Amino acid sequence: MKIKLLIFLILFNSFLLAAEYQINLNWDEFEGECNGFISGSIGEEHAFLIGASAAEALDGKLISVGEGMSLEAQQVFKIYGNDGFFTFWIKDKFADDDMNNDPTLISMSKPMISVFKDGELIDLIKVPQGSGLACKIFTLDASSGDVDREIKYYPKSRIIVGRIVDAVTGDPLSDTKVSITDYMKQIRSIETDETGIFIDEVEIGQYKLDISKEGYISTFANVRMGADETPREIVCALSPEIKEFRIVLTWGSRPRDLDAHLSGPNPEGGDFHIWYRNKILIDGKDFLDRDDMDKYGPETVTIYKPAVGNYRYSVHDYTNKNSKRSEQLSRSNAQVFVYGQNKLLASFEVPNNFRGNCWHVFEINEKHAIIPVNEIEYVKDAISIH
Hints:
The structure is a single chain. By secondary structure, this protein is mainly β. It has three domains: 17-154, sav2460 like domains (Lipoxygenase-1, Sandwich), CATH 2.60.60; 158-241, Carboxypeptidase-like, regulatory domain (Immunoglobulin-like), CATH 2.60.40.1120; 242-386, Lipoxygenase-1. 5% of the residues lie in helices and 47% in strands. The chain has helices spanning 2-17, 105-108, and strands spanning 20-26, 34-42, 45-50, 55-57, 62-64, 75-80, 85-92, 112-117, 120-126, 134-141, 146-154, 159-166, 177-181, 187-191, 197-201, 205-212, 219-225, 232-238, 245-250, 258-265, 271-274, 281-282, 285-286, 288-290, 299-303, 311-317, 335-340, 343-349, 358-364, 370-377. A six-stranded antiparallel beta sheet has the order 4-5-6-1-8-9, with no helix packed on it. Strands 3-2-7-10-11 form a five-stranded antiparallel beta sheet, with no helix packed on it. A hairpin with a 2-residue loop joins strand 2 (34-42) and strand 3 (45-50).
């Protein structure tokens, strides 16, 4: 009886302490037709809702009240609980039905989004002018209540937007060939423009991108257009041809700053630990080719003169260095590519749904074999990563 009472009290207290978020969307109906759109995940469960109709998902923790069903706003969304990540978008209602090709209508309708937590206003967002049929507004971390604004317009919703850069310099690579294989095994090819960017319209499904340019080591990317039909962004860093080990890190728009850490034997004796605060020269060369501090990457490390011994490569989430419970690293879409002997030797994707700020990716043993580690943990101080 006491156990049942204890369980009841725990569940009851959890219910009382659960947060209630509300997102209100308003716009000028005489200038355009907006549609709010929210996609979110709690643990391994994913869902999305549109604001035009009443619906619920994620076991009732994500709700669309329905357009015109509230006196407070034209569209209203509610989130219940202290867990999960949610991304809020605005789309033109007819953007993907080929009925509207005017990319200024969202901007002209002057959207305004109000975000509340337990009835208290925590953010008020006036969407600035821009051009596009879809616009990303913010991401909400329900565990902390943090609203991360990231206002960005896209030409359409069902697109892959890619940027190809040099892994060492970070410069954009034009005229790079991108071969796209769809879920029907059909292949089409496009090339990047002078800014290194390509855009491809796609349907729901899985796509493989094979990326190549003369003088560079070819690589690949896997992209899935999900049922939420929101734009997918990738950054791919091509490595110039090289025989030594070169390790390239890329990630998404959040967190802003991930740092590469490499430890191993110093050819001149002893061991080293290289990261952005400890750039040391080995045999006259700096192994840290490129440190990126403003999202996406690349962050590139090259072992120019491999010595006998074991190497260990890790990625540290500097943005969330003090947060034990952060899942931002796990949700960063970070990828690590290892090159050598003028080819791709291995690739790694950050594990999903883990808390921590340090991703131990792989080791290289004395026989130069790459040994996967793929673990995430919290580290108090970056200097302790090895």
